[in-house]
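Q: For a teaching session next week I want to show students how multiple molecules come together into a single three-dimensional assembly. I've collected the sequence lines for a complex. Could you give me the predicted structure tokens for the whole thing so I can convert them for display?
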Amino acid sequence: MRNLKNPSEIIDSIQHQLPALYFVFGRAKSETLAVELGMQWDFLDINEKKRVKQIIIAAEAEYPDMFVHRDRSTLKKLLVQGIGYHHAGLSMGLKRIVERLYEERLIWVLFCTETFAAGVNFPAASTVFESCRKWDGREFRQLLNREFFQMAGRAGRRGFDQHGHVFIQISDSYPAETGFFKESGIEKVQGRLTVSANTVLNLLMWKSDQEIEHFLKSNFSAFQKRRNLKETTKDIAEAQIIIQEKNNVFCEDRENNTCPLISKKLKRELQKLKSRKYRQIHGSSNRITEIKKTLKILNQKHCNSEKCFEAVETLRKVNQKLLSLQLKKKKTAKETQRYTADFNKMRRLLERLGYVDGRVLFSRGKFALHLHIQEIFVAELVFSGILENSPPDVVAGILAGVDYVPGRREFVKDHVYNIDPVTQLRAELTKLSVPQEYLVWSPVPGYIVSAWYQGQDFAHLLENTSLQEGDIISIIRREIDLLRQIEKAIMAGGPVSLKENNSVLLEKIRNIKRTLDRDQMMILL
Amino acid sequence: MDKIRKTSKKKTKKRSKSKKYPASKMAQPVLVPEEQWQLDEFQVKAIEAVLSGQNVLVAAPTGTGKTLIAEKLAEKALGEGREVVYTSPLKALSNQKFADFKKLFGVEQVGLVTGDITINGEAPLTVMTTEIFRNKCFEDPEQLVNVAYVIFDEIHYLDDPHRGTAWEEAILFAPPHIKILGLSATVPNIEEVATWISEVRQSKMLVVVEQKRAVPLEFCWITADDYLLNESQAKHQVKKLIEKKSEKSRYFRN
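A: Of course. Below is the structure for the complete assembly, covering every listed component.
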């Protein structure tokens, strides 16, 4: 981690503009900064502290160990000083408490990540940006103007503050990353359609050819590209008109020996020939006299050469532009066809895998209609019999890995069951040239969910992984989501091959779902 | 031992700071509840339009009161015995909206459907994630027969590289009788979005834009030694730092 600047002095400079939301892009950073501030600041008086303690005690009555793990006892201490942190790693209960205290104006400086600014309105007197770069799942990048203003705009409480104050830190070591954002620079909205297996199956199942065509040709991205295409075509036409006009400027003597346009060229040649290197070459002196003669004639010619020179210059520029416009047009025209190409590609894949033939959906296809995450892989997990033949705790573990990409330094205790069938299935599908992006699966989170299914408590999970409370909850909630999709798909018909066992599988899936959705995993409403 | 020393140091420092502090703490605001704000012009315009049954796209900065427009619309539709779907991009937001709406309209009137939870799913005002609404448009559009409006909160999520597709598919395939109220952060091509929506849905869409923030922002940059700078000073400082840095790296390279 980079060196972090102690926030105490900053808070000192802005102490008349509190409460502040202190945006930090990184969970560990937000915790470290909160602790540092806590060493020097305490914002609450005795009565306020009492109030905070009451709220904490009430919450702990519901979840006695919410402040026990992952050093959250530090957070508890900080909250009593009017300082907090809030990020996706926290359990739902902790997030709830921090939000509540903030709303009750019992938190004066809250170190938080972007999620705190999304949607729910938590206004502050000021917002502080520790940095303006964030990890977007693939890389560190500068915030978009839109993202910045979403966060910065939390500063300023309506009906109270004259201004919302936004403070941006300049880092001595990374000065180039300092944020200077402009509302006028806010990015355009672009179309982002992706043609998933689920989309193709739903289109084939429910929509007419005409509607499918409409979908592929009238989506927002295609609409924008068509607009671009129109504009580019117009620009090309304009460029061509200019070219025509400028070509009319010249007389019929253009660039023959009597045209001043060649004088520059001749002068340049003359210069070259006079240099030491060329002077000795045979024929140079003849050429020099020849050029001198021509230049003399040219000087005597009285035509409007200024205009011709200007026209040549313009033509050069416009021709260059025309070339790039034509390239752009070609590219955009191809892009407007992209979705049709994507659709056909996915359709061919689904046909090859036996999900669909023309308009007819086979049982795999009908099943995958109800899946929204890694639909091909999940359907294959069901139809291969893996879910049917494995005990429920193993099913719970396997499904946890669907669409999961483990972080770099992540640790989870190894699963104890055999994952060979899953590995084999992925290998077979790869052989059938199913792209890897449709086979995203990891064994890593398996232990967490299978242990939770077997009735272990939250503390046990936390002891067996480096993941934070919020990550564990999100893994299990995502699995509940996936289990619901599978449940729906089985109820809508299910695999014909497993027909008689469908009810067994259905019961298994429901049982896992019910068992997972308990205690700390339940959504607080 | 070490720990004790730390705490004692903390205490002395704390006390001296908190003495400095009360000045701004006295000025605790009594915030006016959102319902009691006077309506802004853009809100009036948008509310009138949705109450008369038009497609409306509102673009306004954070915290200017877009939600109120949605609430007025829901109130009217529920009063007429019609249904409204409210979609939001994040589960946490859906949960929050569900709680808010329950307070406003009563528990029986409001439902919540996300990927992993369903509560009172048949209610006339249902809060959903956009993905769920998109799925309904494909799978059982009959269920949406009585829906008068779909409200897309944070509709600029259209631009989200991974999830934007759900918004597009929902807009393209929502049954044609359903009107749209889109709530967006400020984006420069809001007109383009509206033109597209009205084209694919073959139904006019009114655009209401508010540029002004409810509370204007003031920017300040903070140097490593805690000086507060304005923009031009900050730019100057950054330039100096970059130059210094490149000099340094040149020095080390040589």
